[in-house]
Amino acid sequence: MQISTTEAEGSSTIKIEGDLLISCVAEAKPQLEDALGATGDIRLDLGALGEIDTAGLQLLLMLHASARKKSRRLVIVARPATFSAALERIGIPVGHFPYQEGTN
């Protein structure tokens, strides 16, 4: 798993590559929390996401909730089928995370 963050045009883009599983959530959490320190919208690029389990989903749900508490908008700009399927498996509608196709 690799996480990179870039800032441009008043927003931060977080790109997650590889698997986001319980075995790497502790490593990923501080990196994702750092992105909350910037200003503007948060764009979450999951286009290179591999597998994701419930621990990984919980981490992204925490990121989304934290962004909302700070009056920031989190938008997914690339959403693989594995992410959508994982959300559906635990009963969370895919629309819970705002999505903007083709903006990455």
Strand content: 25-35%
**CATH overall fold name:** Transcription Regulator spoIIAA
Supply Rg.
Answer: 12 Å
Largest sheet: 4 strands, mixed
N-to-C series of helices and strands: EEHEHEH
Helical stretch tally: 3
Order of strands across the widest beta sheet? 1-2-3-4
Shape: globular
Summarize the structure.
The protein has helices at residues 25-35, 54-69, 81-89; strands at 2-8, 11-20, 41-52, 74-78. It has 104 residues and is α/β, with parallel strands linked by helices.
Structural overview:
- The protein has a single domain, classed as STAS domain (Transcription Regulator spoIIAA, 2-Layer Sandwich).
- 35% of the residues lie in helices and 33% in strands.
- The protein is built from 3 helices and 4 strands.
- The chain has helices spanning 25-35, 54-69, 81-89, and strands at 2-8, 11-20, 41-52, 74-78.
- It has a 4-stranded mixed sheet with strand order 1-2-3-4.
- Strand 1 and strand 2 (11-20) form a beta hairpin.
- Helix 1 packs parallel to helix 2.
